[in-house]
Specification:
mainly alpha; 8 helices
Length: 227
């Protein structure tokens, strides 16, 4: 338990700089075009070398997703509520968010760079074919997975555990619930076609989620099971 506690805490803390580096490189390599990841044609237009996709989404995988698995599993112990059935549901939702998000990042790593390379090296009808396939994967991952399903799962997780957290740590609990609300806002914006809401929810998530993870990691490292 002591080793797992340290693992959960340190992985959550170290995930923050990795996540922020991923976000920064995504904007840097697309010439700070904030619309690059809103449409496949804009992303391909800004792209001169597809190898950076592998780098940034690898950082995304190990920044926003996989390091949070131990954190999600340790939170019920942190809250002294390991037998709570409702908290188990929230934890399952959190793990589902992490796994689904990680699958999306893995698909980006394994599929998008090759399709982008093929698109840039061809022309005419063949280029149009690669663009169509690239767009299909792009839309499925970015919108279907990351802007619809994942924000619902993460929103339920953060809202749920935030209610428990604020009973012991009011500020941390409210920040967690706020993160959950903005995460759900991403899905609401996508479903209703309100791109402003979708972008607000996504940008708050990208900025606040790594900070939240690091704060939770510190809280776990300071946690005494007897408290």
């Amino acid at each position: 338990d002591r080793c797992f506690k340290k693992l959960a805490g340190w992985m959550a803390i170290l995930s923050m700089p990795v996540a922020f580096l991923s976000t920064f490189l995504n904007t840097y390599w697309t010439n700070f075009n904030l619309l690059a990841f809103t449409a496949p044609e804009i992303l391909l237009q800004e792209m001169t070398d597809s190898s950076w996709l592998t780098v940034t989404f690898m950082l995304d995988l190990f920044g926003y997703y996989l390091p949070l698995i131990p954190l999600a599993l340790y939170i019920p112990k942190l809250l002294n509520a390991e037998q709570s059935g409702l908290l188990k549901v929230f934890t399952f939702s959190g793990l589902a968010y992490i796994i689904c998000g990680a699958i999306g990042a893995s698909l980006c790593i394994s599929i998008l760079p090759n399709l982008a390379d093929s698109y840039m090296q061809t022309s005419g009808d063949e280029q149009l074919l690669y663009f169509t396939v690239f767009s299909a994967f792009f839309n499925g991952i970015f919108f279907g997975l990351w802007d619809l399903l994942d924000p619902i799962l993460s929103g339920v997780w953060w809202l749920g555990i935030g209610i428990y957290l604020q009973q012991q740590w009011k500020v941390l609990g409210r920040v967690t619930m706020t993160l959950g609300c903005f995460s759900l806002l991403t899905s609401i914006g996508y479903v209703t076609g309100n791109h402003a809401l979708q972008d607000i929810g996504l940008n708050v998530y990208l900025g606040l989620a790594p900070i939240w993870a690091a704060c939770m990691g510190l809280k776990i490292l300071k946690h005494s099971p007897n408290n």
